[in-house]
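At this stage, I wrote out one protein's amino acid sequence and its backbone structure tokens, and that material follows here:
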Amino acid sequence: MKVTDAQVQDFQKRVRGISRQHRQLSQGYVQLVERDGLLVPQKRQLRRRFPIKGLIIAVVGFMLFKGFLFSQVGPVHYSERVQTLVEGTKIEQAGAWIMQADPVTTAIAGQINSLF
């Protein structure tokens, strides 16, 4: 039996496809079950989403920090320190805008003062 050039090319194409699929599946896969019970490996879909939960935790933690700082320093000294930042460089001015006493900060400080 003689092997033709077309058969060799077809064989090489199938080998390249199997190698490509093997490389893709080596990076992670999940087993999907077909209706007939056959397990079929599928490439794991990586979802890159914005970490909203981490952002919320960071904002809440920062607000608690501001409230604790406001309660420990006092409103007069806190506003003096923020005013010092307002008169500084652009970065210090941005920090002053972030650190300004807002209603949430004063409410958290009131809760902390009532605890201690």
Notes: The beta strands are 29-33, 39-43. The mean pLDDT is 88. The helical segments are 5-25, 52-73, 75-86, 90-99, 103-115. The chain has two domains: 5-43, 52-115.
